[in-house]
Design goal:
By secondary structure, the chain is mainly α. The chain has ten helices and no strands. It is elongated and about 65 Å long.
Amino acid sequence: MYNTKQKILNSSIQLFNQNGIDAVRLQQIAEDTGISVGNLAYHFKNKDAIVESVYEHIFEDFSNVLRQYAVSTAMTGFDAQLSLYYEFFDKYQFYIADFFKTNNTPTEHQQIWQEYITKMLIQIKSRIDYLVLNQDFIPETFSGLYQQVAENVWTNLIFYIQKCRMRGITPTEMQYKYAVWNQLRPYFTESGLTEFNQVILPSFSY
């Protein structure tokens, strides 16, 4: 039963990415999974139940990405978290279109997303603050500089994959991470740049 349910969810995610949630029918999910609609209904009573289960997985996966922050505040910890961000936003591409649906009142899923992406932004700014404290980053040259840098990084993390696909470019994890680090490199101190070149940059050569 678990394997079939997981296959249904995997097919649903793939179809949601390709067509958007609203355009996908139960028949399509069943066909893509390789089962009958009746068999699908045995596991999920309707499409809403599938969507809800998919979102449970999404929020669990994103919580795991955010937990990486507690593993290490150093550059290597951030680089490891970037890999998790890439994996997440590549897997769940449909969420962006679903998040930005026009509604007078945000849905429950949208409200949860707002909480998660706020935590995400706080973590990015905290990482920058740590780099400053560790003398890997230069002090702010004007008030609010690093808040804006954090928001720019946050935007790139969320939209980089979509931006590439809009331009007909196939994104890769290496490009994704490199784009983010390039936003941070202008603010490295000499010692911070040395650490970046010795510890982080070699991983981009694979």
